[in-house]
Amino acid sequence: MDMVTLHSILTVLVFICFMGIVWWAYSARQKKGFDEAANLPFADAEDQGDSPNSDLGSTLEKKPHD
Description:
single chain
């Protein structure tokens, strides 16, 4: 098996993997999860429950100086 044949086989295998990923990404079963993930940046902190930055607002409040 020469290098040209090996490269051709590898190209076909990578193309098949790529098409499989595209098929998975655009399948109807994934749509709901992707729609939820797309809206995460717009979600309120209350909707997400316990978040590591949930008390960030209290730490940023101005405190009176002594």
